[in-house]
Amino acid sequence: MQLIAEHTVQITHPEKVLWPEVGVTKADLLQYLVDLSPHLLRHLAGRPLTTIRCPDGVAGHRFYQKDAPRPTPEWVLTRSVPSQERNKVLDMVMVDSVSTLLWLGNLGCLEFHTGFDPIDHPGQPDWVAIDLDPTVPGFEPVRTVAMEIHRLLEHLCIPHIAKTSGATGLQIWIPVRPSIRYEETRVFTQAVAAYAVAKLPAVATVERLTKNRGDKVYVDYLQHGPGRTMIAPYSPRATALATVSTPMTADELGGVARPESFTLQTVPTRVARMGDLLAQLEPIDLRPFTTFLARHGGFR
Amino acid sequence: MHTMWKGALSFGLVNVPVRMFAATESHDVSFRYLHQVCQTPIQYTRTCPTCDKAVDWDEIVRGYEYEPNRFVVFTDEEYKALSRSRAQTIDIESFVELSEIDPIYFDKTYYLAPETSGKKAYQLLQAAMTESGKIAVARTVIRSRETLACVRVGQGVLVLETLFWPDEVRQTRELPNIDATVSAEEKELSMAVTLINQLATHFDPAAYVDTGREETLARIRQKVEENQISTPAEPAAAKANIVDLMAALQESIRRTQPDPSTAKSKPRPAKRAAKKTS
Prior knowledge:
The complex is a heterodimer of chains A (300) and B (278). Chain A is of the alpha+beta class and 300 residues long. Chain A has seven helices and 16 strands.
C-alpha cells in the first residue's frame, strides 16, 4: 500500500494492531498522524527526533532510537548530532513533513521525543518545562502540585500550559523568548520546584532517589536541560490505552480531566475544536525573573 | 571490589583476559572545612577576577603556562586528541629480576584477576613467573595516560605496579651533604653492622597500626557520644522563605507592569482551528 503526501510512502501491514487492548491499528495511527500533523509538525520541526519503536505493538519488544531508521528514504531530512557518548555522531531524523510522520508511523515509531532547544539555536531553549512525576500510581497528587505551580505562574503573569505526559505524569510548559540559556532557565525551574515543595511539603519533593521519595510527586526540574528530551505535544504513547500527551486548560487541570481520557481516538476531535493550546501562548522574556531570583534568592 | 579496568594481559601470542582492581586504599581521616559561624560546609566557586563572576565548566578551557602569565590554550577537542584512548591490553615487553627495579619507581598497586575464560592461562603465567623468579615490564594506558608498569606475583595473585617514568624520579645529586669522600673506618663499620643485626627481625605487617588515626577516630567517637554535634544552619532557611521570595518577585514584576490588563497570562481564545493537510 502507498500513501501520497509530499512524497510517496510505502505502508506495510496497515491492519496490524498496535494497541491490542483498545484495538488501535497502524492505519488508525497513520490517520491520527495526518489529522494532527499541523500541530505535531509545529512542535517537532527543527528538533532532532528521539523515538520509541514498537514494531509489534505496545505489547511487543520496544526500543529507543536516536539514529535515523535504515533504510532512510532520500527525502527524509536528517542532521548530524554529536552523541553524549564520546566519538560518536548520530544521524537524527528532523520531522518536517507529513510523509516523514507517515514513514515513522509505518515503522512502528509510537512516541516522539525532542529537546527544548532548536537545533539551530543550541543551548537556547524556546520552551521551559517542569516535569511532575508521581512516585505511586494516581493522578490527584500530581494535579495538586500542578495547580500550586499554576497559581504561582498566574500571579507572576507567566504564560503556561499543563500538558499530560500521556503516561503517569504531567508537565507545565512555558514558552520563552529565545536567547535565554539553560543555565538561566535552571535558576527559574529550580526556584519553582523549591516553591512547590515549600507550599506542599507533604505532597511534593525534589529528592532525586526514587527510594527516598515515599509517595510524593517528584518535581523534576532537572529534566529541562541540555541534551534532555521530553515527550512532544500530541505524541502518542506506547501505553495500553493509546494515550496522547495533551495540553489542557487550567479549568480542565483544576477540574476532573484525567490523563487517560486523552487518547488516539479522542484527541483529534478535541484539537479540531480547541486548536493547539500551546500555540496560543505568547513567549515571555524570562530574564527579569531569573535575574531577580539569582540576586535575591541565591539560586544559581 | 570495584573493577576499574577490563582487558587483557598480552605477551607474544598469549592473551590473558583480566580485570584490574585497586590493591590499596588510604584510610586517612578526612575533615571538611566549615564556616565557623554557622557550621556550614564551605562551598568553592570558580570565579574569574577579570569578569568578576562565577564561571561554569562549559566556559572553561585548559591553558599551559609556558612562561609566567603566558599560556597556550587547548580546547576540549584538542586536549582530548592528545589524551590516549583507553588501552585494551597490558603489553608485556620484557621480563627482569625484581631486584633490578628500585622501589622508588613504584607508584600505585593493582590486583589482576582472570576472567572466567582466562583462568588457565592466568594460573600458567603465575606459575611460570614464580618458577623463573622474574617480573614483567609492561606498558598500558590508565586514565588516558600512557603508563609504565611491572607485573609480578604477590599475595598469591598477579599484581600490577605502575611505575614512575625514569625522568620523574628526582636526581640524588641535588641533595645536600652527600659525598663519598668521607670514608668510614673498619671498626666503625663493623659496630654499625652489629647494631643493625641486633635490630634485625622479619617484617610482620600485623605489628603496625596507625596509632595517630586510632587516636583521631577515638576522639571523634567521643565527641559524637558527648553529643558535641553541629548541623549546618541548613539552606532550608533559604527554601522556607522561597514563598516570600516569590511574593517579592511578584511585587517587583507588578511595579514594572503598571497595567496588569496588558499582561499575557491567559491563553488567547483559539484563533487557529486545526487545519487538515493531506
